[in-house]
């Protein structure tokens, strides 16, 4: 049987990044850039005040001055007369003739009650030319690549792109993902009265949620009943809807109603149908080539047990969706974590044990602590609740003692880690 590393190598080697499309900046979040973005102009484009205060000639020093004019943000720079200062606001262009800014806190307003001539006392002079002024190009230089191809666009990147005027962008297309459940026992989640032998379909909505979290367009293909005809019809529906990646769940094991592998073998190439992992052993991967007007389709036959399906999604499908979307490093990230309880190992399969990681200070250092989410049977979806990592446990006899350091694959946002109230902030040493 394949290892999970070999399975991922096969998947990553069988798929390529999708074509690129143009998107508006407003809709660009989550995409990967398909071009370098370069700043056409410097930022700031003019010497800009960092403070509200007075634009001065720094050589003039402290003393009392007439206020020549007001230089407000958004106005063209005025020309400062000798022996005077100009009132200036943050972000305004430095007037010609001025070379520094004195913040208002370092001045006293001497304007009389008539207010006819504004005067000010500079109490604390500017240190020299350039004081409290942003030089042209000090934030971004003209010609600088602000974002290279392959950058993932988040909020900060959107801000940068807006700054340099990149209102339309070339990005890699995201895959259209179809989700399909299989099984006669399944009913819709809205069903309040379960009949004999029935359960609600959890996987389809869970996988749809996971794929849309990655920014993919999701197409709901419903539930295929346990017949070859119905399952084939749903695959045809996926093709007709332009699905790039089909996620099925259930029907990939050894039962006499497990049709998925056989159908995929007839339609395309099944690259593997079993992986040495727990949970998720029957994970199946197939590709169906493009033909005529039909797009190429990548198919993951995920095991029906809900935990098996979401764990295999994270370990194999998510990196695949990322590669298709243009991510340069599509794999999950690894950290080391210390186990908080003893964990029984599986003698035959490496196990992906669901844990909640939190950050602990220990001795002189700090480390991740891994708390098990409890019973790990692959039907128990509660074992995924608040799990932000999968411990990579080796296949071995016996028990891994509490306090062992194990590698863990991140599947959740560490920004959502449990909050520890007892962590004081470390204050830097005063010198
Ligand atoms: N003889 C063998 N039997 C099984 C083996 C094996 O090696 N030999 N492997 C087991 C393992 S491991 C897994 S995992 C499961 C996977 O089986 P399938 O992918 O064929 O899934 P089903 O049999 O259709 O369902 C398994 C289980 O999950 C429930 N299920 C299915 N779909 C959903 C859904 N959309 N939402 C919620 N729950 C779902 C289903 O009712 C079953 O209880 O096979 C073992 N068997
Ligand atoms: O691989 Mo199955 O997912 O152990 O239950």
TrEMBL record:
Q: Which UniProt keywords apply?
A: Magnesium, Metal-binding, Molybdenum, Molybdenum cofactor biosynthesis, Transferase
Instruction: Name the chain's protein.
Output: Molybdopterin biosynthesis protein CNX1
Q: Which domain of life is it from?
A: Eukaryota
What organism, scientifically named, is this protein from?
A: Coccomyxa viridis
PROSITE patterns linked to this entry: MOCF_BIOSYNTHESIS_2
One Pfam match, given by its short name, reads: MoCF_biosynth
Family, as annotated: In the C-terminal section; belongs to the MoeA family. In the N-terminal section; belongs to the MoaB/Mog family.
Which EC numbers does the record give? 2.10.1.1, 2.7.7.75
Cross-referenced PANTHER family: GEPHYRIN (PTHR10192:SF5), MOLYBDOPTERIN BIOSYNTHESIS PROTEIN (PTHR10192)
CDD domains (UniProt xref): MoeA
Q: Which residues form the MoaB/Mog domain?
A: 178-323
Swiss-Prot/TrEMBL catalytic activity: adenylyl-molybdopterin + molybdate = Mo-molybdopterin + AMP + H(+); molybdopterin + ATP + H(+) = adenylyl-molybdopterin + diphosphate
Its pathway is: Cofactor biosynthesis; molybdopterin biosynthesis
Q: Does the keyword Transferase apply?
A: yes
> What does the function comment of this entry state?
Catalyzes two steps in the biosynthesis of the molybdenum cofactor. In the first step, molybdopterin is adenylated. Subsequently, molybdate is inserted into adenylated molybdopterin and AMP is released.
* Keyword DNA damage in record: no
- Name of the top EC class for this enzyme: transferase
InterPro entries, sorted: MoaB/Mog-like_dom_sf (IPR036425), MoaB/Mog_dom (IPR001453), MoCF_biosynth_CS (IPR008284), MoeA-like (IPR038987), MoeA_C_domain_IV (IPR005111), MoeA_C_domain_IV_sf (IPR036688), MoeA_linker/N (IPR005110), MoeA_linker/N_sf (IPR036135)
Q: What cofactors are annotated for this protein?
A: Mg(2+)
